[in-house]
């Protein structure tokens, strides 16, 4: 039978994932300008096995795909690699259609299934390294805690060397007709939507991600089937290496200046700092307005950029609220490889620089000593000090580069 809705991956594995172009914010926080794919896979044989489900808003499209492959047959197993609802909230609809299906999960998954969906029956609990024989198919399970939820695990089919990696190796963006790595153009946008996904969703668990990647590097992998982004059948090492670099927070030489400004004075200070960076010989310089740019992009750029400079105006004797929020999020990321710079401004009493100093001290940041604090608009001497801050940042980046 011709498959019109689904894609064949190998002689017994099908792609039955769906695209979501309606949800504007992933986890209701992270922008999705290019949407997101919820990947799901159906393994056929003596038993029919689904690997992860989809978000409930896409369930009707999904069910059509499941039915195209099953062609009236029954579904025997669902593997839930982790319970986050983008991969599980369609479960009730599937259980209504296939009430005898058994759910394969681990012992940490079971309470989540109960708490989220009141499901506690027909569970098969697997543990680290366990192999299940499911008809004529075999799957081996490995735990990857906190990548991305505590109960996260992956499964591996030895026969075809296929890894079902759940969130690991995923990215934002829908799969537009092309689903395989050799069909998708890995251009700047694809790259940045993959890195933004990792940094936003998994970044704070980077050390656990690195442990998971080390564990998976022991396997011979020919195909990676993640739950978001492309299926890697031709060049799986490309995404493996990218994820390893991201988990190590590999930074590029460059400077990201994030400012908070109400009437433009602090923005002009940021411009002066940037001139100093350029004079110091660094060419990759970005200036971002914290009030306008989603923190999703700011976190991603900060993760990948060696020099990060935060400059903020004062608001009600405290820091500009969007900068306060950004600092909270940056704290969660536990970034270790940046050089930081700070500057503050105020109208009648300070507050911003004090909070920025608190941030760099609390997070044990490697921070430059020069920390300008300016009342109102910067005068000539203050402009020189801001330029000097940029030059010092460039000098520190170049010194670090020479050490490595
Ligand atoms: Fe794609 Fe952690 O869910």
TrEMBL record:
Pfam families: Flavodoxin_1, ODP. It comes from the Bacteria. PROSITE patterns: FLAVODOXIN, FLAVODOXIN_LIKE. It comes from Anaerosphaera aminiphila DSM 21120. Residues 255-394 form the Flavodoxin-like domain. PANTHER family: ANAEROBIC NITRIC OXIDE REDUCTASE FLAVORUBREDOXIN. This is Flavorubredoxin. SMART domains: Lactamase_B. In the N-terminal section; belongs to the zinc metallo-hydrolase group 3 family. InterPro entries: Flavodoxin/NO_synth, Flavodoxin_CS, Flavoprotein-like_sf, Metallo-B-lactamas, ODP_dom, RibonucZ/Hydroxyglut_hydro, Rubredoxin-O_OxRdtase. GO terms for molecular function: electron transfer activity; FMN binding; metal ion binding; oxidoreductase activity, acting on NAD(P)H.
């Amino acid at each position: 039978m011709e498959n019109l809705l689904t894609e064949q991956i190998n002689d017994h594995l099908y792609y039955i994932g769906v695209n979501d172009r309606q949800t504007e914010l992933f986890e209701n926080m992270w922008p999705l300008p290019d949407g997101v794919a919820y990947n799901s896979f159906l393994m056929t044989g003596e038993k029919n096995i689904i690997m992860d489900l989809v978000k409930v808003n896409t369930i009707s499209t999904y069910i059509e795909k499941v039915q195209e492959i099953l062609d009236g047959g029954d579904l025997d197993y669902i593997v839930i690699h982790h319970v986050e609802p983008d991969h599980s909230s369609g479960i009730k609809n599937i259980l209504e259609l296939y009430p005898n299906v058994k759910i394969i999960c681990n012992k940490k998954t079971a309470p989540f299934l109960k708490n989220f969906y009141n499901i506690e029956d027909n569970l098969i609990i697997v543990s680290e390294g366990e192999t299940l024989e499911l008809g004529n198919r075999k799957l081996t399970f490995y735990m990857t805690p906190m990548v991305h939820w505590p109960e996260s695990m992956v499964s591996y089919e030895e026969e075809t060397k296929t890894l079902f990696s759940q969130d690991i190796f995923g990215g934002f963006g829908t799969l537009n007709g092309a689903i395989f790595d050799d069909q998708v153009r890995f251009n700047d946008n694809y790259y940045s939507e993959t890195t933004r996904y990792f940094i936003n969703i998994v970044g704070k668990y980077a050390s656990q991600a690195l442990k998971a990647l080390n564990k998976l590097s022991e396997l011979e992998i020919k195909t990676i089937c993640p739950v978001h982004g492309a299926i890697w059948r031709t060049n799986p090492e490309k995404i493996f290496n990218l994820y390893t670099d991201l988990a190590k927070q590999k930074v590029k030489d460059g400077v990201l200046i994030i400012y908070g400004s109400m009437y433009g004075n602090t923005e002009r200070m940021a411009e002066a700092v940037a001139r100093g960076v350029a004079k110091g010989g660094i060419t990759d310089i970005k200036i971002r307005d914290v009030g306008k740019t989603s923190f999703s992009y700011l976190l991603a750029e900060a993760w990948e950029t060696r020099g990060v400079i935060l400059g903020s105006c004062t608001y009600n004797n405290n820091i500009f609220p969007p900068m306060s929020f950004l600092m909270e999020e940056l704290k969660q990321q536990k970034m270790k490889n940046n050089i930081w710079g700070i500057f503050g401004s105020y109208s009648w009493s300070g507050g911003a620089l004090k909070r920025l100093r608190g941030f760099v001290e609390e997070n044990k940041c490697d921070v430059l000593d020069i920390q300008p604090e300016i009342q109102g608009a910067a005068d000539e001497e203050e402009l020189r000090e801001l330029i000097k801050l940029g030059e010092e940042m460039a000098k520190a980046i170049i010194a670090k580069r020479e050490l490595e």
